What we know:
heterodimer, A: mainly beta, Jelly Rolls, six-stranded antiparallel β-sheet, six-stranded antiparallel barrel, 4 helices, 26 strands, B: Porin, 18 strands
Amino acid sequence: MRRAALTAALTAVAALTAATACTEDVTAPGHCPDFCPSGSINGVDTVLQTVVQRDSAFRGFVQPHEASSLLAATLPGVIDSRAIFRTLPIGDSLVVESGTTTMGEIVGVDSLTLALTITRRDTSAHNLTLVYYRLQLGIDSTTTFGGLAGSWTDSLRSLNVDSVYALAGHVDPLRGDSVFVDTTTHYVTVIAKLDSAMAPFVPADSGKVAFGVRVVADSRASVALGSVESGLGPRITWYAEVDSVGKDTVPRPASTSDQFDSFVFNLVSPAVDTTLDSTLAVGGMPVARSIMRFALPRAIRDSVQISRATLVLVTARPPEGVPADSFTLAAHGVLADFGAKSPLSPDASRVATTRVHIGIARGDTVRIEMTDILRSWQIDTLAPTTLALRQVPEGTEFPEIRFEPSTNTGLAPALHVTYVRRFPFGKP
Amino acid sequence: MMRRTVGRSDSRTGPRLVAALFLSVSLTVRLSGQDSQFSVRGLGVPGRWESVRARTTGGAFGPFDPRSSVADVSLTDALQLTATAAEATTYRRAEIGGSRDDLRSSRFPFMGLAGPLSRRFVVGGGFATYLDRTYSIVTRDSQMLRGAYAPYTDRIGSDGAVADLRFAAAARLRSWLAIGAGAHVLSGSSRQTAQRIYDDTTFLGTTQTAVVRYDGFGISGSVALDPVPAVRIVGYARSDDRLRTRLGDTETDRTDLPTTLGAAVRWSPSPSARVAGTVMWRSWSDAGGFNTTSWSAGAEVGAGPTPLRFGVRGGQLPFGPGTVAPTELGVTLGTGKGFSGNRALVDLGLERLVRTGGGLTETAWTVLVGLTIRP
């Protein structure tokens, strides 16, 4: 009986204790100053005008033949750029019949289809037309627009992308052309058919062939074509006639991709002069980056908590192009400051981006929110406080923007930072 | 024989269960006192050095209770090893300027251990809350940022307390005279937080935290006189030197602590009725606050293991706005239950407290649970 009473009582006490022990709500609105702590949170909003103390621009990070896009543009008065590529050989013989290993010599071709992927286009440019040219096989990374001057006189044919896309099934049954749009990526795949007169099979070249592509439209035309670096490079399919071992000839398809691709361009406008000066160049072709070195006040690096930090850049030379040429500008932290060869940090928190739109004017400001970068510098005090301004992705846009450098007092890059000072803990 | 064996087993089971409960509760939670909005300014709210038994008499029995640490001389009544702990859950309401906030918290404000070394000499010790430093204040305001007002919410909080670690001894010199003395190590910490959240999420919120540590030292002494068997008079004093505040290795503040003087009288007209009254003065002006005088009166009715206790207390709080010390007034009610031949004691209590000052009225209901074991 006593044991039962004791157990019941202890159970009741334990239940009461447990029921009341886990309650906590001590948060109440403050009625200041009488019933608020003596210390307060002190927020500061300031612009650091001289925080960037050294900067410089470098060019050549991505060459045209390294780019993930083949840039083709016809922007009168600005730039004329054309894609060039050379395909892989297919050999001099093909399998006669599927499922066998019997090879037959290629004795001729019926036709060839050339597939190009447009990864970016200006949708306001109507009657977008691709014009195809046959080029010499000797094109390489040293090929220039001027060096191919004689190759652009006679086109093989042209393909109006908008017209073909408007047809039923997006297929031109008469010419064998077709256009497909990926609804997810919005990439446009353009397949053009070239007959044997346009693309003859040269046995001595084993089927290697080089083409150039120009783009025109009713208005300013600018597109990006997928390159072999992006996995979306030009692809051709030969429809060849094969000697069926003395019996007859049979048509056989043979597909191949390109061996080399690039683009050549002619900078028409002096405004897109690629010569570097004291300004901070970003983008363009060959691609330019600018390195900015920050000298943060010790208090900001060590003793405050940053709510927001915005890099303010003043445009010294605006980018030129069509609206679709608007690009992403990134302020990218580096692992070590080796100038032009500074390795970029793989840490996503050390990358801040903004969108630069075609149409901004000289003197306009470009702002990049870089709060995370500044916070990462506070955490990792050994990290170099250096940023690389770059285009993302690089080599996919022609426009180049230039910003006022730190030497231009009054227009130099500035850091607008909002932060909270260290709270006076430990004071009654 | 069998029944006796079972009976002995029962008599040990209770204290063991209580001990297990006592240890499981007391060693896994932090020590703190009662929260109050009056702890926001100054050093905090002074804790109560009372067991649940003493607290449910309004604190009047504190100087006489061997389970409390108000007066060291009370240890002389600890005739066997005794361990005690208290749990307090408080439901508060703070009203100021027409606004009302309901708050709640649970604390374990007191633990003690005492036992005789000889028939006349008893030692004891334990923890009690010296100052409570728990609060969380939320304010709304705005700041001009980048050409526009940016509203934000600030939350400043402190979660912790200064604990009083006591080592005490008491001796009965005569049948009518006893003395006691103690040394007090003040130690504690509070986790402080300062947080700002902007309504505009483009401004990231900031949160700063720090663990602030406190230390200090004090001594106490007391004397008890029994002029007649039914009356005991206790006088006690305590002097604490200073409270040092550290943030990491840096001393951020040093504040003098008060001297405490108190006196109490208890009258036991019969074995089943006891009444007591006490008054205490503390020189909190040494710490930048108001000197305080507190009083209490209470009674315990009923002999045996289930007495009825009640009391009333009043006084001042040392820290508050303005030029007048905030005041508090409380009434208490409680009881207890002994088990296994009083080897395990459970004390239950309810306290109603009203604190006023600086336009703030704070009312609180506190549920008290005390556990005592005498193995």
